[in-house]
Amino acid sequence: MSENKISRRSMLKTTSAAALATSIPTIIPATALGSNGKAPASDRVNIGMIGCGNRSGVTKAYQNYEKSQIVAVCDPIKERRLARKEQYGNCADFVDFRDLLAQSDIDAVHIATPDHWHVPISLAAARAGKDMYTEKPLGISVDQCVAAHEIIDKHKRIFQYGTQNRSMAQVRMGIELVLNGHIGDVKKVHVWCPQSEYGGSTQTMPIPEGFDYDMWLGPAPEAPFSQDRCLNQGQRNGIFHIYDYAIGFIAGWGAHPMDQLQWWADQMGLGIPVHYKGCGTLPANGLFDTITHWDVTATYANGLQMRFMDTATARFKQSDDVIPYMNEAPFSHGTLFEGTDGWVAVTRSGWKVFPETLYQKAKNPGKIRLIENSHHQTHFVDCVLDRKQPISDLKSAINSDTICHLSDICIRTGREVTWDPQNNTIKGDRELKKRMHRDMRAPWTL
How far apart are CA 188 and CA 203, in angstroms? Predict the structure, then answer.
């Protein structure tokens, strides 16, 4: 546990004990002593929320959990920031995440910013001694993924990745069936997710009052302000589909089914695929410029193949035997393990197995078991208190995100990509290696 956590909690306990011992009347807030269903303040994790857009909605779980509380919020958009500030009891609010990280009473942060900020802020949080829950996907380049190792290797922080499918029972049980050999030998894996959007208006507009646009851009290149660039909510928000801020749904949605694959691969000691080939489609016009459709075949060092596609492509190519069981597993995204004796498909929407007798076997699948957890955010809080890495750990996040990036590079260049896992780099091709890096606008660096 970090020094600031020890000193803060020790101070609160000492202060409360002294107040009870003295004859001088002292008013102690009820919440500090643990009434109203909350643990004493000294035993609660103080969380700062960085990013107050759509994904910040999941942070209400911290406020409802007896072991945690939101004490600060941060966002360069005033309207969003103040709405969350009011929601969490008029807590502290900041425009600049660095000011929030400087607060000694904050133990951990929940990072729900656009993708281009995920790794820079995660690294800054680790250097400030904070633990972190970071939304998916991890970074916007392979180099950012590799740099993220510092969070654990150097700073020993607790890191939870926002791939909440791991906290869903059907995902865990399905993968346990595969790990315990109930579908025989795995002969192929299929991963699919929704395609990216195309279009987006390029019409510029004045920067709204109360919006620190320069802070929002941060390390991204300067660009004219527009509604579709950063203000629209939902899937058509440019933060998901503009290459300066993301690589599209190939990682933004792909993070979920790819993480399910990685959960299995970690247990098998497979690492990530070492060879990638495929094709895809880039928008011809409009503001959005990430890959919309794709079809990639990635091969592990042992020869096992993984087919990665957007959902529309996967369904269009059913006759191609791409996903032989797509009709039986009609999910918008998923991970399907095809074995010699059956198959298992898992997703947040449900799961499908063949033969159906596997449903019964999932109750007691065998010796190999995964972490069982029912709530992603409160599990993170427990791990901060216990100093244990959570269910969606950093190493796995780096691996699954790297697969998405190598797939993107393969499509954008039209070249086959060979990965060197020992040195965390692309083999041979100098032009492909350049694609591993993204320049950052001064003065921002990793």
Answer: 45
